[in-house]
Amino acid sequence: MSLQEIGDVGYSFRMLVNALSMRFDRVRDRADLDNAIKNQQKGLELTLPGHPKRSFNLLKLGGLLVSRFQQVGDRTDLDDAIKGFKEALELRPPNHADRVFSLRSLGSALETRFERFGDLADLNDAINNYEEILGLSPPGHLHRIFSLRILASALLTRFNQYGNSTDLENAISGCHDALGLTPSGHPDRSFSLVILADALLSRFQQLGDRADLDDAIKESKEVFELRPLGHPGRAGSLTLLANTLCARFEQFGDRADLEEAISGFREAHDLTPPTHSSYSLTLENLATSLLTRFEQTEDHADLDAAIAMYLKTLELRPRGHPDRSLCLQNLGGALASRFDELGDRADLSDAVEKYQEALDLMSASHPLRSECLRSLARLALLDGTATIIDE
Question: Hey, which end of the chain has fewer CB within 10 Å, N or C?
């Protein structure tokens, strides 16, 4: 086949892949996505190493594989996408005009793999990519705001996992810098506000400075106003505001804050379809707020509802999910509360089982491990037949 013929066939594959991708985005028919991937793979076979369009085809195929992973959950798709993104990055050295796009694609996929499978190396590699993007986006650069924001978000994720205060301070600083570039009315302002509010809430929970909590609530309310009903980020804004109100309730005990938070979590849950990646989180948030209200009112309907929601959340977080241990611990605590109230030994046995599994999934340095171990020890003594396994 001549170079001209290869070029014509490659163009035909690109047009077909683009058409299938567009129809998948509109109709969400899995067959369109599968066919787009199959044809993109054929197109890639025509661009052997050294071909000027190979990096483009690698990135296109990687993006399609990530889309299928998000729909189906097959880790092979995500691993193959990351492998392709890495090859594409090698084909775009530091002085390449499109290196930023390759860094962004690889970083996002690595962050997704961390979120689903919990390997810290993936998160660290993603942060390294985002730091390089920021270095390639000096003040005044078109991508400066975006690069500040994605780096701040990843640093906050790492702080929430491992508690390094430097990550938290750098995340807050990056958000302030991004907000300085997005005044009121800027279409991207709410994205930076979300990360900043989350980071300030984390710092309040770490250091207890009331100013951080007040600022987190202020930023959350601005996000809520910027995302009215019908906005795709409405559920996220409701969750953010509810989280800050819960923190203020825990600090000062105003029941109005708790009731408003429960309403926010419930609306966020109602707005999130079961197929959405955040669905389990909306269930868990609502369950936790109902459990908090039960602790105040002793209304067993809240406790039963919380347990049912934690059980559903657990179904959505199978073995290997990085947040399974947290759900197990929350469910164990709720079952223990019901045992304390009603004395049903089935709840006690179930609570011991859930705490033990949570403990088994936690690393020695996990920030909640000691709390989990203490709760398990108390329940094991009450159960009389349980043996704590702490390897």
Answer: C
Burial class (CB in 10 A: 0-12, 13-18, 19+), 71: middle
The pTM assigned to this predicted structure is 0.81
Tally the domains of the chain: 1
Establish if 54 belongs to a structural domain. yes
What is the phi/psi pair of residue 277, to 5°?
-65, -20
Quick: pLDDT tens for 244-265: 999 999 999 999 999 999 999 9
- Residue at 58 is within a domain: yes
Handedness of CA 264, 270, 272, 275 (dihedral sign): positive
What is the domain extent for residue 4? 1-136
Q: How many CB atoms lie within 10 A of CB 163?
A: 13
The amino acid present at 360, given as its one-letter code, is D
What does the alpha-carbon distance between residue 356 and residue 376 come to, in Å, rounded to a whole number?
Answer: 7
> The CATH number of the domain where 115 resides is what?
1.25.40.10
* Residue located via tokens 């028919």: 29
Tokens (6 digits) for 109: 């996929």
CB atoms within 10 A of CB 321: 18
Is residue 286 a contact partner of residue 267, using CB atoms and an 8 Å limit? no
Residue 25's contacts (CB-CB under 8 Å, 6 or more residues apart) are none
Residue at 27 is within a domain: yes
Q: Which of 229, 167, 253, 236 is nearest to 203 (CA)?
A: 167
